[in-house]
Amino acid sequence: MRGPWWQDRLNDAGFRLTNPRELVLGILRETDKHLSAEDLYVKALQKNPSIGLTTVYRTLDLFTQIGIAQKFDFGDGKARYELANNPLKKAHHHHMVCLKCKSIIDYSDFMKEELELMKKTEKALSKKHKFKIMYHIIHFYGICNSCREGD
């Protein structure tokens, strides 16, 4: 019998689910936010005061390499992470990043036309460059409504 998908990813890659890995995984599973390694570390310290920042970084690197977590750069100088297949989020989403307040809005309520355009774009890129696209990540940058109203 197979375990949870993240356990299978670890096992298939030859790794165990250690206590620190389980702790970081739990924090990622419990949030719908895009956390930095430092954010995760602060939350982890509350649950396990002996965990080190280096352990959190190594765990996030491993999770990113084997597809348990996704790493994003939203232009604020910090890598941010979210759990792949997070049950708190819709499976596929894009991000809108406010250039003023740095808030990140997940966008997943795609219209039919948007989905068709994305499929056509992927198909054309695949054909043109002989490249098999596995997935894509899209970030839109601008000013959120709260910041615009504050001007």
Tell me the number of helical segments per DSSP (H or I, 4 or more residues long).
6
Strand order of the largest sheet: 1-3-2
Tell me the name of the CATH class of the largest domain.
Mainly Alpha
Beta strands, count: 6
- Helix/strand/pairing class, anyone? alpha+beta
What is the count of structural domains? 2
The termini sit apart by: 57 Å
Q: Which sheet architecture does the biggest sheet show? A: 3 strands, antiparallel
Structure write-up:
With 151 residues, this protein is α+β, with helices and mostly antiparallel strands. It folds into two domains: 88 residues, Arc Repressor Mutant, subunit A (Orthogonal Bundle), CATH 1.10.10.10; 62 residues, Dna Ligase, domain 1 (2-Layer Sandwich). The protein is built from six helices and six strands. The strands form two sheets. A three-stranded antiparallel beta sheet has the order 1-3-2. It has a three-stranded mixed beta sheet with strand order 5-4-6, with no helix packed on it. Helix 2 packs across helix 3 and helix 3 packs across helix 4. The radius of gyration is 18 Å and the shape is flat. The N and C termini lie far apart (57 Å). The model has no long low-confidence stretch (mean pLDDT 84).
